[in-house]
Design a protein that fits this description.
With 266 residues, this protein is an alpha/beta fold. The protein is 26% helix and 26% strand. The N and C termini lie far apart (59 Å). The structure holds flavin-adenine dinucleotide (FAD). Flavin-adenine dinucleotide binds next to α1, β6, α3, β8 and α4.
């Protein structure tokens, strides 16, 4: 199958809370000094799903797309080192301050410029803004079905059988291709690139496209956002601890029960 995987580079979610800062006036996250961005943790699982599908099928092509600054090339290189065939980096100052809808529009335009795909795979959500809307947005623009939160995916004749993760169980659906599928963390561990594959990845092609190359420059930028960000702030977490006194465990338990009853919690 001809599969396109979308991967996003994000600030490292393991960044210590003390290094995480936002500029509330500008409504922007201030990048933590000395901590390199990483590939969104769900996206290597999407790459893994693409590679496994084509391995089971005996061949195919996997192209990786990332929209972001020049450093997002590293997210593409990681997927290439895992075994993807080629990459496309969408980078341009026209993409500054874009929202989820514009991101979906840019990714969909790149997919169309690549000639489309049998299957587009994405992560279930980007672990920075964590909205999980880009896969559905891309599917809507491309006019193809979208299946979200896949924990397993396999070919079933000319269609795909997808097992989805729900809040209270699992659901198996069949979907015709072309389709967009978002992969959940339950999919399992992605393969870890070996040194030789990392070196081979350096020789694989990464095309670089601007918004103008995609014919969408006029739709990008802050002026064309659909989503309005009202406020961005680090929430204050407050906790009050009260030590229940008592001369014996029984008295402490009695005092605790009285407190809970007074607070109408029991
Ligand atoms: C005020 C504000 C300013 C912003 N400024 C910028 C900016 O200047 N530039 C910018 O790029 N973003 C910017 N963003 C972030 C951007 O709007 C979102 O990150 C983007 O729309 C994706 O939404 P999400 O993170 O919720 O992705 P989700 O919908 O949670 O992502 C799901 C999956 O979609 C795919 N995906 C999502 N984003 C990308 C991507 N960029 N490339 C490839 N695949 C992707 C991945 O497979 C991912 O796992 C800004 C956001 C805000 C609120």
């Amino acid at each position: 199958m001809n599969i396109i995987v979308c991967v996003k580079q994000i600030p490292d979610p393991e960044t210590p809370a003390s290094s995480f800062k936002v500029d509330e006036a500008a409504k922007k996250v201030i990048p933590a000094q000395g901590i390199a961005p990483v590939v969104n943790p769900y996206d290597p699982q999407a790459t893994e799903a693409a590679l496994r599908l084509n391995e089971a099928d005996g061949g195919g092509k996997v192209t990786v797309i990332s929209l972001g600054p020049d450093s997002a090339r590293d997210a593409i290189k990681h997927a290439l080192a895992m075994g993807a065939d080629e990459g496309v980096l969408l980078t341009d100052s026209a993409f500054d301050d874009i929202d989820n809808f514009q991101t979906a529009a840019a990714l969909a335009a790149a997919i169309q410029k690549l000639g489309g795909a049998d299957l587009v795979l994405m992560g279930r959500a980007a672990a920075d803004w964590d909205m999980g809307v880009v896969p559905s947005g891309v599917a809507q623009i491309l006019g193809v079905p979208c299946v979200t939160l896949a924990k397993a995916i396999e070919k079933s004749g000319s269609a795909l059988k997808v097992e989805r993760v729900l809040d209270d169980g699992f659901q198996t659906v069949e979907v015709n291709t072309p389709a967009v599928v978002s992969i959940s963390n339950e999919f399992g561990e992605p393969r870890y690139p070996q040194l030789r594959q990392i070196m081979l990845a350096a020789k694989k092609t990464v095309q670089v496209w601007s918004a103008a190359d995609l014919g969408i420059a006029g739709e990008m930028g802050a002026a064309n956002r659909v989503l309005t960000l009202d406020a961005l702030y680090v929430p204050k977490v407050e906790s009050n601890v009260e030590i229940i006194e008592g001369d014996s465990p029984e008295e402490k338990a009695r005092n605790l029960a009285q407190k809970l009853r007074a607070a109408k919690l029991v």
